[in-house]
Specification:
It contains twelve helices and 24 strands. It has helices spanning 55-63, 81-84, 87-94, 103-113, 182-197, 201-213, 233-244, 262-276, 291-299, 317-329, 348-358, 376-395, and strands spanning 4-7, 10-12, 15-17, 22-23, 26-27, 32-34, 37-39, 45-47, 73-75, 98-101, 120-122, 128-130, 135-140, 150-154, 159-161, 220-222, 251-257, 280-285, 303-308, 310-311, 314-315, 335-342, 362-363, 368-371. Strand 20 (310-311) and strand 21 (314-315) form a beta hairpin. The structure holds MU-OXO-diiron. MU-OXO-diiron binds next to helix 2.
């Protein structure tokens, strides 16, 4: 089994999941990795485990380096099952001297595995544990993205084990950021942020500030998913700064669903108006795009215009599902408006507006609804609305443009 050495005595021993395509509703088209790291020192230490289904990969990788029973400390940076699923089996095999976790991690481990007898060592921000030649410093990162989440910083080597933060769902035979195509990795990092971390953006801003003030000499960031950052640390940190401050491109999305193509005609007219204003525009028919890919685009857009026909006095089900998903992820700082065709009752546009207001997004138009099939004059109204939204984007100070 192939392991990878990050630095002398520090090994990647995780697992590559080439097959996973759904991560609690997030489409993982490129699979993922469950990263775990083994440090050989006076106290041999394993950082995180893997999903239960990949226990054998973890064990084989560890065995290629050392007998797992020789591991002294097991650090749990995050209790979600993709990293702790194999914990009970590893605890039986290793029987470590210490199971190291945050205070919230202790509670979460007990609530998951019901083993209060494990040798917990509870650590808080600033606490340090010596491994012999090396020292681990701990940083609690509550709600990034679970209460238990924490970073472990290996001081002498400058390696930050960052749990889910800075990760991507990206299965690859390469382990480092300079070995894989950076554009692909960054696209997956944006998707990870948009679908897992977006709602915690205010906390991420605080964390980036806190870590900056700690003056850590970070030479590598080793997340629990995807590549290890060693050559493009600045790129991922700057991207997190930008995403967490809602800085978006001069770009608009027309996101819609349609019954008999009337709302689609309106969507095309809105998009034409946006383009006329000089705004890069993407049309997103929800029938053909997964909600998690749409959220990745929302992260980078400054305007979103939603369209739905009215069905049974409501909005179309795909749009309803997308709104429910987007609401939970709490995007902010977007110009918005709505449109849609209807037959006799026509509630969809009002319902879309209500949802956008509830999300505290900047609804800059009342929206447009047309009965049955829009005529040319009605499509002109849609183009004009698109153009007004586009001009708002062009003239806005939010974001740094493209
Ligand atoms: Fe990768 Fe929050 O688990």
């Amino acid at each position: 089994m192939r392991t990878t050495e990050l630095a002398q005595g520090i090994h990647w021993v995780g697992a590559i999941d080439w097959d996973v395509r759904d991560f609690h509703g997030y489409s993982t088209n490129r699979g993922t990795t469950y990263n775990a790291f083994l440090v050989i020192d006076d106290k041999i230490t394993l950082f995180d485990t893997v999903k239960r289904s990949h226990l054998d990969d973890l064990l084989n990788h560890v065995r290629a380096i050392i007998d797992p029973a020789k591991i002294d400390y097991l650090v749990v940076n995050h209790v979600e099952m993709d990293h702790s699923g194999a914990l009970p089996q590893m605890m039986e095999i290793i029987k470590p001297e210490k199971l190291i976790c945050s205070p919230a991690g202790h509670k979460a481990i007990v609530d998951h595995f019901h083993r209060e007898d494990w040798p917990f060592e509870i650590v808080k921000t600033g606490d340090e544990i010596s491994l012999g030649k090396r020292t681990i410093q701990f940083i609690e990162t509550r709600m990034l993205h679970w209460p238990d989440s924490m970073f472990s910083y290996l001081k002498e080597d400058g390696i930050l084990f960052s749990s889910d933060a800075f990760g991507e769902h990206y299965a690859s035979s390469e382990r480092f950021d300079d070995e894989a195509p950076l554009a692909d990795v960054m696209n997956e990092a944006a998707k990870y942020y948009a679908n897992i971390l977006y709602l915690y953006s205010p906390l991420i801003r605080k964390l980036l500030k806190q870590v900056g003030e700690m003056n850590l000499d970070i030479r590598m960031i080793a997340p629990d998913h995807g590549v290890i950052w060693r050559s493009h640390i600045d790129t991922i940190l700057k991207a997190y700064d930008r995403w967490s401050r809602n800085i978006a491109d001069r770009k608009a999305l027309v996101i819609y669903d349609t019954m008999w193509h009337s709302t689609e005609k309106m969507a095309k007219a809105v998009a034409e108006g946006l383009e006329e204003a000089g705004v890069h525009t993407s049309m997103i028919n929800l029938k053909h795009h997964h909600r998690s890919d749409v959220m990745t685009q929302v992260l980078g857009a400054r305007a979103i215009v939603l369209g739905s026909a009215t069905l049974n006095n409501g909005i179309l089900p795909r749009m309803a599902g997308f709104l429910s998903y987007m609401r939970g992820l709490k995007p902010s700082g977007k110009f918005c408006a709505a449109f849609g065709s209807f037959g006799w009752s026509g509630e969809a546009v009002n319902l879309l507006n209500t949802a956008l207001h509830e999300m505290k997004l900047d609804v800059i138009e009342e929206g447009i609804r047309h009965k049955y099939v829009p005529a040319e004059a009605q499509l002109r109204e849609c183009r004009e609305m698109g153009k007004r939204i586009g001009l708002a984007v062009v003239n806005s100070n939010d974001g740094d443009g493209e």
